[in-house]
Amino acid sequence: MIGALLKRSQLRLLKGHKNSVVIIFLVISFQGFGQISQKQLNKIDSLFTSWNVSNHPGGVVLVSKEGKTIFSKSYGLANIEYNIPNTNNTLFNIGSISKQFTAMGIVLLEEQNKLSFDDDIRKHIPDIPDFGEIITIRHLMYHTSGLRDLHGLLGLAGWRRGDLETNDDIYRIIKNQKELNFKPNEEFLYSNTGYILLAKIIENISQLKFDLWMKQNVFLPLGMKDTYVETSINEIVPNNATSYYLREDFERAVEYWGYFGSGNIHSTIEDLNIWLQNFSAPQNNWESAFKKLLFTKPLKNGFETNYGFGVRIEDYSGRKVIQHGGAVGGFRALVRTFPEEQLNIVILTNYSRSNIGSKANEISDILLVKKNNSITKPATTSAKLPAKFIKLSKKKLQEFEGIYWSDSEKTGRKVYLKNDTLQYSSSAENEWPLLPIGKQTFIMDHPSIKPIVQFEDITHQMIIKTDSNLPGIFTFLQKNLEMKINDFNTLVGNYYSPELKSMYSISIDNNSNIYLEHARHGIIKLEQLYDDIFSGHWPVGTVEIERNENGNITGLRMSNGRTRNVWFKKYTTKKRK
User: Fold this and answer.
1) What is the model's pLDDT at position 572?
2) Using CA atoms, how far apart are residues 317 and 306, in angstroms rounded to an integer?
C-alpha cells in the first residue's frame, strides 16, 4: 500500500526517517478529504524541532481527526545517558491525567451497582476519620472533599523533596487527621489525596489490587494494550522514558512518586488517542460511562466549576474541549479532545519546562477554523466605573482601614486612607483606589478589572466579587497597619502535631531573628508578615500563632498550599534547676 502512494524517493526516505514518512503519507491520504494540508503539518512539526538537538530529551505528539491519525512523530531522547531516542511507542508517566482513569473505575463500579457516587466514603473505607461532615465519593472526584493534599501533609510530617511517597504513607496519615481544609462542597481545591482514596475504594470493593483491576476492566477492554499502573518504583518495564528537570542544564529526576490513583499511570500516544476517541465516538457499551465522566455539580454556594470526574470541561475559542494535564518529576503530559470536531491532541514529554500547554494551543489554532461568532474572553471584569460616586466622610473611610486576611489563600490585603481616598494594596508595588458606590460598597479602580468590594459589619469581612467568579473573602485581622509583635521570646518552645506525629521548635538568635527547626528539614528562617503571622520556605509555608483568651500562646497552625491549618500544640520546655 505504501509503495502505491509514495514515490521512489520517499521510499528511500523511509529507511532513515520513519517518522517523517508517516507525516508525508498522512498528508497524501487526507488531503483528498480537505482535512489537513502540508503547510499545517509543517507548522505543527516546527513547534517541536527544538527538541531534536544533541543530548536533549523531548517527547511524542499525536493528532487525530475523526478517528484517523493525521500527525504522529517523536522527538529527542528518551534517555540521555544511553542516547536512546523517543519513539511513538515510548511509555511516559502521564501524571494527573491518571485521575480520569481512576474515575472511570469508580464509574464502572457504579454501573454495576456496587457503589453510589453519593456514598459516604466511610462505607467503603471504614477507618477514615469522622470529620463531623459526610464526605462522598462524588466529593473526592470533584476535588470538593476538603481533604488536605498529600504533598503538603507529608512535607510537614518530615518528608523531604525526593523522599518516596506511597499510598500506605497517605492512608496512615489520613487516619490521624482531625480537621479538613474546608467543609465538603464549599470549595474546589485540587486534591491528590482524594484520588488515592478512590483507588482504595476500588480495591476494597473488588478485592483486587488496583493495577490488576484497572488492566482487566479498563485498559484491555478499551484496547489500551501498553498502558499500566505503576505501583512500585522498582518495577522494570521496557521502553519507558527517563524524565529530566531543566534548570541550568538537564538533571535526571529522581523517582519518588510511589503513589497511585492520583497519578503514576504510564501510557503511549496511541493508547491515549484510543481513550480520547471515546468522548466523541464511544466504543460499544462505553457510551454511558464516558458521559458520566462529564458530570459536573455546583458548589454549595451555587458556583459552577468546570471539573467533572477527573477531567476539565472547558471552552476554547468557542468550542467545547475536554482536557487534563499531568506533571510528575520531569514528565509533562497533556490530552485534549474537541468532541464536536472529533479532534484529539496528545503530547507526552520527559523534561520539565517543555511548555506543552502553549504548544497544544498552537496546534489547536493551526487546525481549527476560527468561528465567526467566537469571542475571546478578556480578563475577568466587573461593572464599569459609574458616572457618579457617593461621598463618604474621612471618619467613615477610616472605619475600613486595617489588614484583612484570607484563610483560604493564606494572604493578606491592606486597606488604608491616602489623599482622602481609600486604597487597596496586595503588595508594596500594587495599590488601587476604592471608589464608594454605597456606604460600605466600593469599586476597585483597577486598569483591567473592576471588582466590587464590600465590607461587612457583622462578619468583619471584606468580600471581593468579579463577575460570576467565586468571591474572595478576607477577614479583618488587625487595625494597625504596621503592628508587629516585638517579643519573640514568647514564641520560643516546641510545637507538636498529633496528626502528623511531627515536632518543630521555635528559637531566636541574638539579632532577634526567629527560626523554626525540624529534625529532617533543619533550620528554617521565618519572616514576619503581620502581628502573629509568619512565613518560611517549603514545607512550612505560612505559620499562624494561636492564643487563648488571656493572650497566651497555645500553639500554631501551618499551611502550605493545598494543606491548610495543621495544628501544632505548644509545649514549653521546663528549665533544669
Assistant:
1) 73
2) 16
Q: Are 130 and 122 in contact (CB under 8 A)?
A: yes
- Residues 423 and 445: their CA atoms lie apart, in Å, by 10
Distance CA 261, CA 165 (A): 13
For strands 257-258 and 165-166, give the pairing.
parallel
Name the grid cell of 70. Answer: 493525521
Q: How far is CA 394 from the centre of its chain?
A: 44
**Cell 501510557 found at:** 267
The dihedral sign for the CA sequence 425, 426, 432, 438: negative
3-state secondary structure of 53: coil
The rounded distance, in Å, linking the Cα atoms of 335 and 263 is 14
DSSP H helices, 7-159, are 8-16, 18-31, 38-46, 98-111, 137-142, 150-157
Residue 391: pLDDT above 50?
yes
Q: Which residues contact 517 (CB under 8 A, 6 or more apart)?
A: 504, 505, 506, 507, 523, 524
Give the Cβ contact number of residue 469 at 10 Å: 13
pTM: 0.89
Q: 346 or 573: which carries more pLDDT confidence?
A: 346
Q: Give the span between the Cα atoms of 499 and 175, in whole angstroms.
A: 8
How much is the pLDDT for 371?
66
